[in-house]
Amino acid sequence: MIQKKICMIGTSGVGKTSLVSRFVSSIFADKYLTTVGVKIDKKTVQVDGADVMLMIWDLAGDDDFQRLQTSYLRGSSGYLLVADGTRRVTLDMALQVQERVVAAIGAVPFILVLNKADLAPEWDMDAQRLASLAAGGWKIVKTSAKDGSGVEETFADLSRMMVSQK
Amino acid sequence: MPSEDSSSSAVLEALGYALFVRDEVGALRLAGHAPAWLAELWPAARSAGAELPVADASPFLENFLIDACECWSADAGRRVESGPWVEQDAASGEVQLQARALTVAGRACLLIERLGAAFASQVAVLQKARETVIALQRLDAEIQKKEILVHCLAGDLSGALGNIVTSLRLIELERNSPQTLQLLNLAMRGAQEQRSLIDKVLGLFPDELSGLYGGTGEIRARANLAGALNLSIEKVTASFSEKGVRLAKPDALGDEIAVVADSAHIERVLENLLRNALEHTPTGAEVAARVSEEADAVLVMIEFPHEAPLTSRSAPSSAPTPEVLLRMRFCRIALESCHGEMGSRPREGGGTCVWVRLPKWGSSE
User: Fold this and answer.
1) Could you report the per-residue pLDDT of B13-52, keeping only the tens digit for each?
2) Interface residue B122 vs chain A (CB under 8 A)
3) B123-137 pLDDT, tens per residue?
4) How big is the A-B interface in CB pairs under 8 Å?
5) How much is the pTM?
6) Does A16 touch chain B (CB under 8 A)?
7) What is the ipTM of this complex?
8) Do A87 and B96 make contact, defined as CB atoms within 8 angstroms?
9) Among partner residues B67, B126, B238, which is closest to A65 by beta-carbon distance?
10) At what angle do helices B225-243 and A127-135 cross, to 10 degrees?
């Protein structure tokens, strides 16, 4: 079976762990519980009829309290760069950490995930900035770990991108 | 096989540590007794001398062993830590672990610790800290939205009031009866009162800033301009790359340029100016940041190709967005509070140069 390692990357409180819980266990907890360290989950998906085992590394949010340890990224075939759609600053932080990821593991497939799409009235993203990222070839999706929208599709898309990469 | 020291092994076991020692063929073998958590998590490694089946046991450990091997092959005395990670035991419970690689008496050791109460306290502190940061970010965004709204409302009111005043002045030129002139004076006085109210609303921004420092609102702190400029450049670099705009940094900035300013404010001022320059610069063009020293002050210049009076309060031709206006207002207030100033001038060869002048630390303003 093909095995692929993917990492969840972004600052704290954007919903990385919630996205993994939704995808792996179909569970969502409303209460925010910070991740300290690393948790690894596995799930098999189908890509063009073939089973692909995803090894999902849920990394602690990169912020002033804890910096991303780039050694955790070793061997990653792709990553989800997660921002909170209701907090504009999390996109800036995601872009900053993405530069460090590229410096550490080079250009591997990734998707920019704007999570918390269920909180539409509080949405606060710079549309122009997103348009410019999309124009630069970035794949950007909206998800909600709470209602599940876009979650399966995002992991499936990243799996396809990783498999077609090599 | 490592030699057994039953008392130290018992201490390690009691502390929740599992010690593995690398043998001649590279296998990691358990030294001493296995703590209960190890037996539950990786039953294959529970007896003394048993091999830790790293590849099957934990992808995290497998990854960490690359760093561990580097550590073991380096000089003695070096150690490397994995950071905390979570494993799932047979009973579906989560076990928090941390590994350390070190060389002791020429033997490569891997020490795995089950994290306990101290770790739980650390998590609780981080939880609280992160919740606070998120709440602050939300509050900051909310305040910024309200500031923009107030600014826009004040701008709209000011525009309408300008029309009223012009109309009143035109009426004044007509042949008016004394009674009409009296009414006109009354209307003019009302309009002036409104204008002063609008100024008060806009004046809330400097008042808020002054409130932060109490008393006069003056800043007497020492800030490192070189560091602030480097940090602000670092913050905007990604946005510049995204838009495909080059950012020319100052040559030989040095480690410290001491000025009178609040470090956080001056960093935000410079970031705001760089972002404004970026907004007005087309893809493929260049924004240049330069620094020059004067006798009592330091001048920072942000140069870009667009011709825009970004630092004036009203831009007649291309009106800045409320966000830009607010940013500029913040910059002006922050600079005034430390006897600094800002302005703009046409750049030689076209474009704009926005400048910021800050008093040197130790100079008398």
Assistant:
1) 788 899 999 998 889 999 988 888 888 888 888 888 889 9
2) yes
3) 999 999 999 999 998
4) 82
5) 0.69
6) no
7) 0.93
8) no
9) B126
10) 60
